[in-house]
Write a structure and sequence with these properties.
alpha/beta; globular; five-stranded parallel sheet; Rossmann fold
Length: about 160
């Protein structure tokens, strides 16, 4: 049975198949999917990197996705005030954002990985309003960015 509002958040700087699967998963869980999109300013402050795509372009890309009903840009590390206002039934968290430095997925079980995620500020807020937090495994944009840069550096641009 589907619940009402499902929320997820992130940078969505390089939109890829993992993002599409995440958003499809969100839509399977609920009727109305809201994406809380991290602002350009926040990304620069938190990572020191300028996003490849400006927030309005990232927002437009997400709005074009059939699984998304609303996109809201937020400032900061976590969308605390947005979650407090929305009070979603379900918050879907991308798993890699919460992995500690040096994390090696092959060395941990699912149960062990779940322990890592209890530090999420989003989880505390959503559970306070009696919502549920669901974790969705996804390749991080950093890993994808590193692979793209490595291929470019090696001259492998996909040409046959």
């Amino acid at each position: 049975m589907q619940k009402g509002i499902v929320v997820t958040s992130g940078r969505f700087d390089i939109f890829h198949a993992g993002h599409a699967k995440l958003l499809e998963f969100c839509k399977e869980l609920g009727e109305f999917v809201i994406v809380l999109l991290q602002s350009d300013k926040s990304i620069v402050e938190l990572t020191g990197q300028v996003p490849i795509f400006q927030q309005e372009l990232r927002k437009h890309t997400l709005e074009a996705c059939r699984y998304v009903d609303n996109v809201t840009i937020f400032d900061g590390y976590a969308p605390a005030s947005e979650l407090t206002n929305i009070k979603p039934e379900i918050f879907v968290q991308e798993a890699p954002r919460l992995q500690p430095p040096g994390y090696d997925e092959s060395r941990e079980s699912v149960a062990e990985r779940q322990k890592t995620f209890t530090e999420a500020p989003e989880q505390e807020i959503v559970e306070f309003y009696e919502g549920n937090v669901v974790f969705f495994p996804i390749d991080s944009e950093e890993k994808i960015r590193e692979r793209v840069y490595a291929r470019l550096a090696n001259g492998d641009c996909g040409e046959e």
